[in-house]
C-alpha cells in the first residue's frame, strides 16, 4: 500500500494505492470529494452527499494502477454532487480534482 499527499491547484488530496490481487485500487480524496479508479462506487457515495468520480485509464494503459494514471486518466462517471461542482465526463482526473476543493 502506498500513501502520499498531492496538491492540485491549491487543494491538498490524500492519495492511496492499495494492491487488490492483480489490480490496484487508486484514490485521491479530501473532505470535499474523491476521484478514484472504477472500483469506487460513486453512486453509494452520492447517498452521503459526497462528490465522487470514476476515472478510466489514460491512453496506452489497461487499468488505473498509479496516482499518475489517476491524474492523466479520464472521468468515466461522476455522481450528482461532483457534477454540481463542475466535474464532467471526459475531463482528466487532475481537472476534476481541481474542482473538488
Q: How would you characterize this protein structure?
A:
- The protein has 101 residues and is of the alpha+beta class.
- The protein has one domain: Hypothetical protein Ta1206 fold.
- The chain is built from four helices and six strands; from the N terminus they run E-E-E-E-H-E-H-E-H-H.
- A six-stranded mixed β-sheet has the order 1-2-3-4-5-6.
- The longest helix has 7 residues, at 93-99.
- The protein is globular.
Summarize the structure.
The chain is α+β, with helices and mostly antiparallel strands and 101 residues long.
Pick out its properties.
Hypothetical protein Ta1206 fold; globular; 6 strands; 101 residues; alpha+beta; six-stranded mixed sheet; 4 helices
Please render the helix and strand layout as text.
Layout: E1 2-8, E2 11-20, E3 23-30, E4 33-36, H1 42-46, E5 51-56, H2 67-72, E6 74-78, H3 80-84, H4 93-99
Parallel strand pairs: 4-5
Antiparallel strand pairs: 1-2, 2-3, 3-4, 5-6
Q: CA-to-CA gap between the ends?
A: 25 Å
Number of strands: 6
- Mean pLDDT metric: 96
Radius of gyration of CA atoms, rounded to a whole number:
12 Å
Q: Poorly predicted ranges (pLDDT <50, ≥5 residues)? A: none
User: Given this structure, which CATH class is correct?
Assistant: Alpha Beta
Q: How many DSSP helices?
A: 4
Specify the helix fraction band. 10-25%
Quaternary organization: single chain
Number of structurally distinct domains = 1
- Tell me which CATH architecture applies here: 2-Layer Sandwich
CATH topology: Hypothetical protein Ta1206 fold
Strand portion: 35-45%
CATH 4th-level superfamily? Hypothetical protein YunC
Mind summarizing the main beta sheet? 6 strands, mixed
